[in-house]
Every structure is written in C-alpha cells, then in structure tokens.
Amino acid sequence: MYITIKTLWERYKNKTKIAKLTGHDWKTVAKVIKEIEAGREYPVKEPHPGLLDSHREKILEWMEEGL
After folding, report:
1. CB atoms < 10 A from the CB of 26, how many?
2. How far from each other are the two terminal CA atoms of the chain, in whole angstroms?
3. Whole-prediction pTM value?
4. What does the alpha-carbon distance between residue 2 and residue 28 come to, in Å, rounded to a whole number?
C-alpha cells in the first residue's frame, strides 16, 4: 500500500484520485502521504513469534526420534 500510494502521489498529487484508484479511504491516503512528505521511509515490520516457537526444540527432538 505504501509504495503504491507513494508512486501515485508522485504522479498525480491528488489524494482523492489516489483513494479512488486504490480503494482506500482518503484519510488513510492522507496519513501515508503525510509520512512520505515527512521523509519517513517504508515502515519495516518486525517478525512476530510463531505459535510453536516455544516448542521448537521439543518438536525437532520428536522428529529425530521418528515420532
């Protein structure tokens, strides 16, 4: 979404048109454009831990045993 809005903003400079093209609310488009103009780069999301991460060692142990 961020890259799409950034590209369309560079091309059209019209929030309403971008909202119609992307299907997002104009407020969302305005928020992303505000971040772009502030110089913030694409937000990097941190990976979330998986549900089974706490049990990984035990599962691998069972797999080695053939269970």
Report:
1. 13
2. 44
3. 0.59
4. 10
